[in-house]
Design goal:
The structure is a homodimer of 345-residue chains.
Chain A lengths: L5 H8 L3 H8 L10 H13 L6 H8 L4 E6 L5 H16 L3 E6 L4 H13 L4 E4 L6 H9 L4 E5 L9 E4 L1 H14 L5 E6 L4 H15 L10 E4 L4 H14 L6 E4 L2 H13 L9 E5 L3 H5 L5 E4 L2 H17 L7 E4 L2 E3 L14
Parallel strand pairs in A: 1-2, 1-3, 3-4, 4-5, 5-11, 6-7, 6-8, 8-9, 9-10
Antiparallel strand pairs in A: 10-12
Helix pairs in contact in A: 1-2, 1-3, 2-3, 5-13, 8-9, 10-11
The structure holds a DNA duplex (30 and 30 nucleotides).
Chain lengths: 345, 345
DNA sequence: TTTTTTAGATTAAACGATTAAGCAAAATAT
DNA sequence: ATATTTTGCTTAATCGTTTAATCTAAAAAA
């Protein structure tokens, strides 16, 4: 029992496929289909449990109602959460999502892009990785609709939905300072990605605005690929330095996890030995013996808005560029509680 | 500058599209295409950067090289990790994966199934949820290839790849008993899913084989949807009961997380007040002040094998049924360390 | 020399839908 | 009664491939 096609319905109804198509697409008015025959077609369609063939539709229309989501890694909770939001929001609008993980690797990202372009996704939502500017330019040139998510390139005019990382880091810095910490370090990825630079810049400005001199040794930049080992070295160094820090900001969830493991090994007490504020969010932060203060990014909003922007663009390609920076929220916990009883609760 | 099609190449080469198709699909030998013309076609194809249109191919062949992966929730680390493995393994074989989250909800799962069938995925990898037996039967009837992953229905003959949950729970129980715990509870989902029942059965048998009488109060079954509140009640009850437990097994990651949060609130010490073994795996288990003993499922193998089974089935639909149960590994940590110095290190 | 075979190409249908264009009959206008 | 419009439907091209069937000329065999 094969799937029923338009033709099958047409035959049973004794009409042409055109009529069937018109009726089933609700164009009976414009195309003046007789009411009687329309009824009949609808009935037969229901009887045969007709399901239109997406492939054929897509081939004809050039639209697949599919969007490609390129992220670093679906097994990372941040991206997994984003993916879930995107999936739901897309489904709500009749779109299907194909997710690809590029491991922060421009080459993989490029492969994914091509695979998905070949599969004729209607558009992309992309969490760009370092060195993928050419890909963004490529999409622009080829006029393939896309929205950058979470990260963007300020020197390239694109739609994007991201977090105000500068502000988030600034707030994190201020928070630590207000809590009485004066020697504050930050660990970030070695990267010239704008979002990462902003996370560092915000931190620096928080220091500056509070007359705290920034020391180069306080900034630790590690490579994504070799994070596991580099984080340890970095922590060793930052604690051994002349200007030993009493607090640290971790610019990503991955960094924080690695650091926490090492800090636990070292039997350092949080926050007395080292106060902590981290980006990202996950169960660990709640359940760590000293709950971790973190920068809560508006995941839901980021995901939803990116889908919204993309779909609008698909409906109307000529619509203006949409760019939005959303504010993160600092969730204060014990890992950054006031150093002395002097300040705050 | 539109994408080049077979026709474009054919025109430039001054031949028919058939020839181009033959050459580009490596059928030049069987179909006796002249060597000279074949060269020319390949050259032009390269020049025009020809990329075949997947939609057209699929429409013709009935194969989309796409597989549907239905899981409970991509934002759950267990499934996210599985998804990643599946994604990679599929890509290695030229397949694309479409992931759908059904939230342990048979109705959503059914929707997803239909959406994906309509999108003509070639086959499915499914983590079944409660009450989805009809869906499995449906797939069998319609002869749509699929492999059940992580969970299966023993009363339905299907391909599947799963963990030996009975053995895993049995091992967990034995481990606790050997560590000196005698009053061991278990928390699971209220469910008649086989994998969940097996997790409970293994635990019970571990008790039985060690002459420990099982008390009904030791088994706490909570509903997935209302887990947050029910877990608390369950813990309260199991601790207040006459046969207060000194150790607990959590049958899923989600249960463990909720329980740990509450246990922390209650200021219970792990393992002295309550020893713990949990299913699932994630950073939390490492970073909890008392690292959590957990049942490590062979994620990578599960994912890989499920893809392998499915692809084999796609190649050769008549191949026999493939079923495999993989062994989990208990990772012993401090949360279940020996109660007295009597046993073990 | 005639017939058969073979190499090398083309034609056209098919996959399942959409849709512009066309056509005949009925209804309306002149 | 004739011209025009409207109604209701069909035809056929199209999207980009694949592939069975066919064709043609040249080569091989009879």
């Amino acid at each position: 029992m094969k799937k029923a096609s338009l033709k099958d319905i047409a035959q049973q109804a004794g009409v042409s496929t055109a009529l069937v198509s018109y009726v089933l697409n609700g164009k009976e008015k414009e195309t003046r289909v007789g009411e009687a025959i329309a009824q009949k077609i609808r009935l037969i369609a229901k009887e045969l449990n007709y399901q239109p063939n997406h492939l054929a539709k897509s081939l004809r229309s050039g639209k697949t109602h599919t969007i490609g989501l390129i992220i670093a890694d679906i097994s990372n909770p941040f991206f997994a959460n984003i993916a879930r939001v995107v999936e739901d929001e897309a489904k709500k609008n009749g779109y299907t999502v194909i997710i690809g993980s590029c491991d922060e690797h421009a080459e993989k990202s490029w492969d994914l892009l091509n695979v998905l372009i070949n599969r004729q996704v209607d558009g992309f939502i992309i969490v760009s990785c370092e060195g993928s500017e050419n890909q963004v330019h490529y999409l622009k040139e080829r006029n393939i609709p896309f929205v950058l998510l979470d990260r963007h390139f300020p020197e390239i005019q694109t739609d994007f939905v991201a977090t105000n990382n500068y502000k988030a880091s600034y707030d994190a810095g201020i928070h630590l300072i207000k809590s009485g910490y004066k020697k504050i370090g930050i660990m970030a990825y070695k990267s010239n990605m704008y979002h990462m630079e902003e996370r560092v810049r915000g931190y620096k400005h928080a220091l500056r605005d509070n007359k705290i001199e920034f020391h180069d040794a306080w900034l630790k930049e590690v490579h994504f690929e070799t994070m596991d080992s580099e984080v340890r070295t970095a922590i060793d160094e930052i604690l051994a330095s002349e200007q030993r820090v009493d607090a640290m900001i971790f610019a990503t969830y991955g960094l924080a996890i690695n650091a926490l493991k090492y800090i636990t090994e070292l039997r350092l007490q949080v926050p007395s030995d080292l106060a902590i504020v981290s980006y990202g969010q996950a169960e660990v932060f709640d359940l760590y013996y000293c709950p971790i203060t973190y920068v809560q990014q508006p995941l839901e909003m980021l995901g939803k808005t990116s889908v919204e922007f993309l779909l609008k663009k698909l409906k109307n390609p000529d619509e203006g560029m949409k760019q939005i920076l959303m504010e993160a929220k600092l969730i204060a916990r014990d890992s950054s509680k006031p150093k002395t009883s002097a300040v705050n609760g």
